Amino acid sequence: xxxxxxxxxxxGLTATRRSLELTAQNVANAANPDFSRRSLTQGExxxxxxxxxxxxxxxxxxxxxxxxxxxxxxxxRQARDASSALSTADAEFRALRDAESAIExxxxxxxxxxxxxxxxxLEGNPLEPALRLSALESARKLAGNFRVADGTLxxxxxxxxxxxxxxxxxxxxxxxxxxxxxxxxxxAREGTSGRAALLDARDKALRxxxxxxxxxxxxxxxxxxxxxxxxxxxxxxxxxxTAQSVSVTFAADGTASFAVGGAGFAPAGGAMAGRASAxxxxxxxxxxxxxxxxxxxxxxxxxxxxxxxxxxxxxxxxFAGTGAGDIAVVLASAAGLATAPAGAAAGSxxxxxxxxLIAALGAPTGPTAGADTLLMGLSSRVSALETRRDGxxxxxxxxEAELLRETGVDLDTEAANLVRLQQAFExxxxxxxxxxxxxxxxxxxx
Length: 446
What we know:
By secondary structure, the chain is α+β, with helices and mostly antiparallel strands. It folds into three domains: 2-70 and 408-444, no CATH class; 74-101 and 163-268, no CATH class; 105-152 and 280-378. It has helices at residues 2-28, 73-105, 108-124, 129-187, 193-212, 271-305, 352-362, 367-407, 411-444, and strands spanning 38-51, 54-69, 215-219, 225-229, 231-232, 235-239, 242-243, 246-250, 256-260, 263-267, 307-308, 319-320, 328-329, 340-341. The chain has a four-stranded antiparallel beta sheet with strand order 3-4-6-7, covered by helices on one side. A four-stranded antiparallel beta sheet has the order 5-10-9-8, with helices on one face. Strands 1-2 form a two-stranded antiparallel sheet. The radius of gyration is 38 Å and the shape is rod-shaped. The protein starts with a helix and ends with a helix.
């Protein structure tokens, strides 16, 4: 009997020790977002022997089982999908906010308004040298505004492209890690701490991939996962222990194209989809900016060719260039501004040609109205994206909180477990002591 009690108490101590180790591991990783709570299964150990019709049961204590990892495939998927949607909106919002800042801080709209205002002042006294010089300098400032807008928009575009290129490297690393994890999971023994750690690493890699691309994972019976990138068309990224390489290229207009294993595809979600969408919109912004510059060049130079300068000579071009990046003032002097219509005499105060220029610049189809429309549209787009991002952030936070409830560590619960396990350890130790005392008592009987 004492030996049976020893065996039972020893099994209890073993199970309690292993449970204590798992509880300590849970507590140590309470702040680790990639850790899933562990627990130990246990089962009663009873041995039965029989001779003929007589059967005898022998109690063996408790059998420590396997390490169970808290997980919920549905909650994990909801958290990944919510994170992917948030990353899409956030990446597009940040990129277009930079583009908006680039155009607004360039002072382009103010430059167009100031140019019109300077021409309007000149209309009141077309032969005043100071007013002519002011109009010419406002034209020079406007050209500088266009060039600054072009340069800062290019910087915003380059920043977004740089983020895409660097994150593609991270995606390839995650895909490679996931392929190696799949290979390790094939040989991992069920119910071990090592397998649980591999599953944690698997889910971490999936979350990282979902932030960059919308993914469709398929969990296999052995715990490995096959991953396809959602898009047009969907493409396999990880299959078993094999991972494909993802690449990104940029066209002359700055737009992005993606390929997996050499096959092109358009991502349906994730930060990469947001960046790709933003780069497409930036290309449209660049084209609109160049069109505004070309419009200002055409209108101003057309007015110059239709009028005469203060000395009666034919008007010469005010601007040179074809777009926002190369627009520049080429008129030699302020006296060359063609305020009077063609055929007017030298020193004419007729401002009909100047009035036509002012009207063309301020027309609903003119560059000033175009710049206003461009900025208003961009501002509205950025505001809408911010609202959408904030809404998705709430959804993502809710999904993460639900995931934490399902798989995370509750320190209050773990503290209660520690007290319970400590009591169990002490109780099993007391059983060992009682068995030893009983054994000594039996030996002392004469």
